[in-house]
Amino acid sequence: MLDKKYDYYEVGETWTSRGRTITETDLVMFSAYSGDWYPLHTDKEYAEKNTPYQQRIAHGMLVLSVAMGLQIMEPGVVAAFYGIEHLRFTKPTFIHDTIHVELEVTDLLDKENGTGVVTINQKVVKQTNEIVSNGVLKILVNKEM
């Protein structure tokens, strides 16, 4: 969705990404990269015996990172990631779940400096149609020059 200049966005427009399956390798690599080896994500025995999910779940920040990667971000269009508000992880994402992203533009703010902020409701949805994460993205987008 982030493939056009600020001037071409309209409040209410929507976009849906392709899917991506979360793998055990994703959890291990994310743990190695982030240093987050919390046993809910990395210890099968611990997760089975000591959590309500009875299995490992993906790190919330891994899910958010994959969701960002599923979005189209065109160089020269996106000036910067401006922020995220009201982020919630509402359901677990398990190994072998396939997630996709659903976006809706909810607001446009002209920064009057050659950019504008595009506000987007982001839902991360898994194959069961359950929303696993939602939040409000703010993306700084270049204007047409």
TrEMBL record:
Q: Name one Pfam family in it.
A: MaoC_dehydratas
The name under which this protein is listed is Dehydratase
* Domain spans labelled MaoC-like: 16-123
**In this entry, which stretches build a coiled coil?**
none
Domain of life assignment:
Bacteria
Q: Which organism is it from?
A: Virgibacillus phasianinus
